[in-house]
Amino acid sequence: MVDDDLAMMDADAYENQLKPWLGVRRFAWADEHSRPGPRGIRCVPRRLHEAFVNRANQRAITDEEERALNLPGDEPDWHQRDVYSRGKRES
Q1: 85 found inside a domain
Q2: Domain count, the chain
Q3: Among 22, 46, 54, 76, which has the minimal tally of Cβ within 10 Å of its Cβ?
Q4: pLDDT of amino acid 30
Q5: Is residue 16 in some structural domain?
Q6: Other C-beta atoms lying within 10 Å of the C-beta of residue 1
Q7: pLDDT for 13-72, tens place per residue?
Q8: Exposure string (b/e) for 68-91, b if CB count within 10 Å is 16 or more?
Q9: What is the DSSP string of 5-42?
């Protein structure tokens, strides 16, 4: 991925907000396609960052956003995810 395709994101927000929003399997994809930035920053795919910022208080990424971003995997519908459970694995 070219640097122009990446956006800077606070590392804490990346770990504690983006991860539950995406769900475990989608977050693994995001982790593979992002990289560490300067201290406290994570460089993430720009389209993913924009979808996250514009989420309008949704609990999770919508199915339409997933398709638009071509994210892989088979997550439950956005409104059926248990996005705030730490350590719980999605099956």
Answers
A1: no
A2: 1
A3: 54
A4: 86
A5: yes
A6: 12
A7: 998 888 888 887 788 888 899 999 999 999 999 988 988 888 766 667 777 777 787 776
A8: ebebeeebeebeebebeeeeeeee
A9: GEEEEEHHHIIIIIHHHH-HHHHHHHHHT-EE-STTEE
Q: Where in the sequence is the domain holding 34, given as residue range(s)?
A: 3-74
Mean pLDDT of the chain: 78
Dihedral sign computed on CA atoms, order 60, 64, 65, 71: positive
Q: Which two tokens stand for residue 35?
A: 């990289």
**Other C-beta atoms lying within 10 Å of the C-beta of residue 36:** 10
Say if 20 falls within a structural domain. Answer: yes
Residue 17 located in a structural domain: yes
